[in-house]
Fold:
Amino acid sequence: MKHQKQQQISPETYLRTKVRNLPIEACYINKNWQETGLASIIVARKHKTGNYTLGLFLVDTYALGVKDSVYKFSIPDEEFHEIIEHIYQDETMGSTIMMEEYTMVHNIIYGAIAFAEDNGFKPCREFSITRYILEEDTEDIELIEIEFGKNGKPFLIL
Structure:
């Protein structure tokens, strides 16, 4: 009996087609995001193997929307916890992050994108892939009122 090799798909193809089938395990955000206008968000989805696929999003809530975004594909539990620990201890993050409900981080990301687009800014190029780690932005996600900009107006920090 011949063993058939299972065809491997690229991480980007997996993200586009399958990652939304994985449960969201945890979401994190820096505690001082409202004061600084910069939200560092991590969304972690857990594979059946115990590995994680992460979306990391740097969101400017004052003007630019999603400034930077990367993913980590199918990383082991230990590496996931090292990333969280590293960010938790990062002085630039106000030295603390906290767990947050998915609905809130979704609203921060997509609300900041809408605010930025209203002011002529588009999300970073990488968001075209990392957005698949998030749930689709539909009416199924509860809408939370969040103020974008500073006093409702775009505020650029140079």
Observations:
- Residues 102-118 form the longest helix (17 residues).
- The chain has a mean pLDDT of 92.
- The chain has five helices and five strands.
- Helices lie at 11-17, 33-36, 77-88, 102-118, 127-130.
